[in-house]
Design a protein that fits this description.
This protein is about 35% helix and about 20% strand. With about 450 residues, it is an alpha/beta fold. The protein folds into three domains: about 5-115, 3-Layer(aba) Sandwich (Rossmann fold), CATH 3.40.50.2300; about 125-265, 2-Layer Sandwich (Beta-Lactamase), CATH 3.30.450.40; about 300-440, 2-Layer Sandwich (Alpha-Beta Plaits), CATH 3.30.70.270. The strands form three sheets. It has a five-stranded parallel beta sheet with strand order 2-1-3-4-5, with helices on both faces. It has a five-stranded antiparallel beta sheet with strand order 7-6-10-9-8. Strands 12-13-11-14-15 form a five-stranded mixed beta sheet, sandwiched between helices. β12 (about 355-360) and β13 form a beta hairpin. α2 packs across α3, α5 runs parallel beside α8 (about 250-265) and α6 runs antiparallel to α8.
Length: about 450
């Protein structure tokens, strides 16, 4: 089974060690002796065999090595122990003298190819990181932190042609929360949140080891996002079944993006607030540096709904508005029971989701980039976390009903149209028996 790395054999064919081609093939390489024609893929490494070890021969062969070109490895048939050092001094990327231990040669080739494709601490890597940090800093001036992360995740999924891509935050207690997800991944269906990383072993391993972890089968990879000495989040990517694995360079770029996502969610100033795109601090910051949702008002609901409506219309996206009656009734505005219910809802939603009091015991929830099926699942999860499962005999005496409207909708031409539709859907849900979830016609 090959790993896709191409090795070009050059130099004196008579000086090649016995069994060289067979060992390279067994080591996973694609071996060729034909220089690439115009338009062909360049080799990943060049293996040059030399019969002698004169200075002229070593200089000429080492001259093939150039920056940004495939690594050049010299095999010197003459048993001169000083020849590899001379070859390296003349510019070769690696060199071995006879007798050649072929498994060691394969290991060296893998290492040289990996280092060339995925350089560590190089100017290129630094430029990539600085560019990402600049984009994040610029985005935070006009966007909410979760919107910055969603943009990064969406671009990565598109660039790598992934099945899905998601970013989770990791709280100090180990609780994970979906911030952004693109594509129908297995991590958390649209409109849901995964609050138990133990359900996904690759996430647990990435958090534990602080290294890239891949699930059995190789399709799902978890990359930890490190900041301030601990894991603040995990980027989870799922490649398409028919596609080859990601290259080391792609993995390293994804790691840089994960770090940028973690930085996007950190406070931007020292007063415990995060810029929310309106010029105001928006909520307290948790131990992990993530924003907790502030008390929402109907004015902020209007603003957020208008914001999501404009974004969905501009980029041809879906989003849902949910109106829930959870059966909490108290006379005074902002009673402890209602505040506690709102906090419980926020804890079990994605970070970009928005919860607001709507009146009485009703709550409005805005679910960005969530269709009708995802909204239904989200309502079911919120109901479960509130302990209002209709299958629970103790919960059946408590009132719970919900209405859902999803944009785009034929009756919605402006954001305010969604309020009348979701209220009608809630009334439809209240008239039902069992699930009690109405959907806008």
């Amino acid at each position: 089974m090959t790993n896709g790395s191409r090795v070009l054999l050059a130099g004196d064919a008579s000086a090649r060690p016995a069994g060289l081609e067979r060992e390279l093939t067994r080591g996973g390489f694609l071996v060729t002796e034909a220089p690439p024609a115009h338009g062909d893929l360049e080799p990943d490494a060049v293996l040059i065999t030399l019969a002698g070890s004169s200075e002229a021969e070593l200089r000429a062969a080492a001259a093939e090595a150039r920056p940004h070109a495939p690594p050049v490895v010299l095999l010197i048939a003459a048993g001169d122990p000083d020849a590899p050092a001379a070859a390296l001094a003349f510019g070769a990327d690696d060199a071995l003298a006879a007798p050649i231990h072929l498994p060691e040669l394969c290991a060296r080739l893998h290492a040289r190819i990996r280092d060339r494709q995925c350089p560590r601490g190089t100017v290129r890597e630094g430029a990539v990181r600085r560019a990402l940090e600049g984009l994040v800093a610029e985005g935070r001036m006009t966007l909410r932190p979760d919107e910055v992360v969603l943009a990064l995740v969406r671009r990565l999924a598109r660039a790598f042609d992934l099945t899905s891509c998601a970013f989770l935050t990791v709280e100090a207690g180990g609780e994970a929360r979906v911030v952004a997800e693109v594509g129908p991944g297995s991590l958390a269906p649209a409109g849901e949140t995964s609050d138990d990383p133990a359900e996904h072993p690759q996430i647990v391993e990435a958090i534990r080891s602080r290294r890239v972890a891949t699930a059995p089968g190789g399709r799902i990879t978890a990359l930890p996002a490190l900041a301030d000495g601990r894991v603040l989040g995990v980027l989870v990517i799922e490649r398409r079944e028919a596609h080859p694995g990601l290259s080391p360079a792609q993995i390293q770029f994804a790691e840089s993006l994960a770090e940028a996502a973690a930085r996007a969610l950190k406070p931007v100033n020292g007063n415990g607030h995060v810029h929310d795109g309106t010029g105001n601090g928006n909520g307290a910051v948790s131990a992990s540096g993530l924003r907790s949702a502030p008390p929402a008002t109907e004015d902020s609901l209007d603003h957020r709904l208008q914001e999501e409506f404009e974004r969905a219309r501009r980029y041809s996206l879906s989003f849902s508005l949910v109106l829930m009656d959870v059966g909490v009734r108290e006379a005074e505005p902002g009673p402890p029971a209602l505040v506690e219910t709102a906090d419980r809802l926020r804890r079990h939603l994605r970070l970009p989701d928005f919860v607001s009091r709507y009146g009485g015991g009703e709550f409005a929830v805005v679910l960005p980039e969530t269709g009708l099926d995802g909204a239904r699942r989200s309502v079911a999860r919120m109901r479960e976390h509130l302990g209002l499962d209709p299958a629970d005999a103790a919960a059946r005496d408590l009132s719970f009903s919900a209405g859902i409207v999803t944009y785009p909708h034929p009756a919605v031409t402006q954001a305010d149209d969604m309020f009348a539709l979701v209220e009608a859907a809630l009334a439809r849900g209240k008239a039902q028996v069992g699930e009690r979830v109405g959907v806008a016609d």
